[in-house]
Design goal:
heterodimer, A: mainly alpha, B: mainly alpha, F1FO ATP Synthase, rod-shaped, ion transport (chain B)
Chain lengths: ~250, ~80
């Protein structure tokens, strides 16, 4: 009775954004930078999962790979081909970093879909660090490789001379918006998807709509599995595009 | 009817920002639909352009995500 009354008074029995709260693992104290939180726990799990797949899984180094090794080889081959296609041969030097990014994001997204799990990439703090690291390293690589010629990225020589200053302003703005859109795309997609699932799950408490809401949760979950992979793919491929701009700044 | 007018504006603004998500949906559908119509005309060239498709979708989607961000800021940060 008590829970019923509570459920009626608040409408939803849980808040859809409650799953994104960063909590300390032990006790209820304030969260300091050294406090082990659920973010720490899930980042550790992500790391262990990557190690399990890529270090333990490929330890046999079989000519005919077993199932785990084939998954690892497929992932490796996909990112390697992407870097080779988008950036070019001279971009393969930066392949390990891009592979790290892809693995971290894809594992964070996929493990975050487990029930009761915490999605690390749903926080802008996490994705902003990833995007800023890409932004800063790409800018530094551009200046180191091309010198001041890198600024030609903002001076569109294929446009008429009158338009070039206007285009330069637009190009500079779009260059500095890159880390913002890069990070918020991933965090926003993850957060929105999980919140939608929780909202549908909240409707399951009402007997009238519960079959529909359970079907909707199932459908959204399937969509989220797809989105989890596609967002990791998009983040990686945009990193490749930015890197290509830095290595070959001509238009 | 209690409550302050700022909160009212916050909720109305968040709702208006949700229109941006619909606009992004139109953009993403446009990109994917044009890709499909092009791919069906020339299927042999389609496989090489999937990366371009995803980049186009990502750019179209980014602006919708900005609208979502504005809604979130209005709801939780202002």
């Amino acid at each position: 009775m008590a829970t019923e009354a509570q459920g009626e008074s608040t409408g939803l029995e849980f808040h859809p954004m409650e799953q994104f709260i960063v909590k300390p693992l032990f006790g209820d104290g304030p969260v300091q930078w050294y406090t082990p939180t659920n973010v720490t726990l899930w980042m550790g799990i992500i790391l262990l999962a990557i190690i399990a797949l890529f270090v333990m899984g490929t330890r046999g180094r079989a000519i005919v790979p077993n199932r785990v090794q084939s998954i690892a080889e497929l992932g490796y081959g996909m990112v390697h081909k992407m870097v080779g296609d988008v950036v070019g041969k001279d971009g393969l030097k930066y392949f390990p970093y891009i592979m790290c990014l892809f693995l971290f994001i894809v594992f964070a997204n996929m493990l975050g879909l487990l029930p009761k799990a915490f999605t690390v990439t749903s926080h802008i703090a996490v994705t902003a660090v990833l995007a800023l690291a890409v932004f800063i390293s790409v800018t530094v690589i551009g200046f180191v490789k091309n010198g001041t010629h890198f600024l030609g990225l903002f001076w569109v020589t294929s446009a008429p001379l009158v338009l070039r200053p206007v285009l330069a302003v637009i190009e500079v703005i779009s260059y500095f918006v890159r880390p913002v859109s890069h990070s918020i795309r991933l965090a926003g997609n993850m957060m929105a998807g999980h919140a939608v699932i929780k909202v549908f799950a909240g409707f399951a408490a009402l007997a009238l709509v519960s079959p529909v809401s359970i079907l909707a949760v199932t459908a959204m979950y399937g969509l989220e599995v797809l989105v989890a992979f596609i967002q990791a793919y998009v983040f990686t491929i945009l990193t490749c595009v930015y890197l290509k701009d830095a290595l070959h700044p001509g238009h | 009817m209690e409550g302050n007018i700022a909160e009212l504006g916050q909720y109305i603004g968040a709702g208006l920002a949700a229109i941006g998500s619909g606009a992004a949906a139109v953009g993403v559908g446009n990109v994917a639909g044009n890709f499909l119509s092009g791919a069906l005309r020339n299927p042999s060239a389609a496989a090489g352009q999937t990366a371009t498709l995803f980049i186009g979708i990502a750019f179209a989607e980014a602006l919708g995500i900005f609208a979502f961000l504005v809604a979130l800021l209005l709801m939780f940060a202002v």
